[in-house]
């Protein structure tokens, strides 16, 4: 296995993911992890990650030098390189000009096993303000760029250091070099898969929870569902779940969730009918932020009720995944509130639960793999994301039960047609938005005066930027006809062709 010591770079979990993709277990731990604990893991290799600090400052994060005496191969990346040079007798200084972005890597030692299958010249991704000015004793330079020492190594001790970021895709042969470190240098074996992950996580959950109890709010989304099934596999009936029917869920959502998780998996799950609560609080409110706050607060009240009911539960389980961890870290920054996102994560402090977050290290597609491995049906696993406030932010203006019913029907038709045409998994997120706008139409010989709805479909990899999906005209026509003919209350359909930015994916 590989242990990654985390010095705070935003790319760290990506390193773990790249290594896991190779079939080798990798785990990220903080840089100050006790060295005894690192030894207990018996890693084949240690990777020191990048990070924002400067090694020559007094409070710079550092490690026990004993790491270099364990006989374990080490790969230092960016800050990890600078720290290694600094600790082992080399010199690091502020570079005259920051190197940021693409650079050309030129290999000096072409026979080095670190460069197996890597061409003599290739593109790498740099992001650093400091650089190595003097290489530590025992090391030699084996590659460079025109402005920095790019790779050094000590082949006797199996230490390698790279100034660039091999884990990002802009480093075209970065994955190959990581692989070369993992297999050629650290001599890892391929023995890790999602199956192992499930097994070891189930073990960990059992150990952590013992005979205590756990509650989990299952939303029907991928993350909380996979977390529920995984935890249930570990501790069975010690897990109690609840599903909150806010009245703002998709069509038949409660039924599907109860069938899949309650009946099929036999998980203790209760459906809380909170439709009246949510809708009465939302009555008369049309400001988007106010609606979001009302919905978020109502969730918290329901949680408090549940907490009273499950007095003997010690753990609150959540389907937090790695991108949520990053997002909530960056959310603390000074960036402006575009929309007050809510997940059940924003619980008040006085709720004294221990958190159980078995998916914290995984990316979305890894969570889906775990879900498939656990036998969760595809149509529950491949679902598009659904926002916490639900249809509350897809009914523009005031939310009413009548509008929610109309929207549910229309949305269901859009999704059904996307699935029929094999388009559902080609787009990242698709849904219908109901506008508070009525227009005139004609149906048969009758004049109609009904709502306008919008088809929204976005293509994105990270949901930070997105383009509108180029859905075929014939398909749009079919969906439009079906909705207008089958859903009472809508007589006009439009298609949203805005990209993000400047628009957002949701309308509120
Ligand atoms: P926007 O509209 O900001 O949405 O482009 C980006 C992604 O986030 C989802 N979204 C939310 N998810 N709670 C969530 O869990 C929220 O409050 C929320 N608001 C937006 C949105 O569906 C899209 O996938």
From TrEMBL:
Alphabetized Pfam families for the sequence: GATase, GMP_synt_C, NAD_synthase
Source organism, top-level taxon: Bacteria
Cellular component terms per the entry's GO annotation: cytosol
CDD domains found in the cross-reference section: GATase1_GMP_Synthase, GMP_synthase_C
Catalytic activity annotation: XMP + L-glutamine + ATP + H2O = GMP + L-glutamate + AMP + diphosphate + 2 H(+)
Function: Catalyzes the synthesis of GMP from XMP.
Subunit structure: Homodimer.
Cross-referenced PANTHER family: GMP SYNTHASE [GLUTAMINE-HYDROLYZING], GMP SYNTHASE-RELATED
Protein name: GMP synthase [glutamine-hydrolyzing]
Organism, as annotated: Ilyobacter polytropus (strain ATCC 51220 / DSM 2926 / LMG 16218 / CuHBu1)
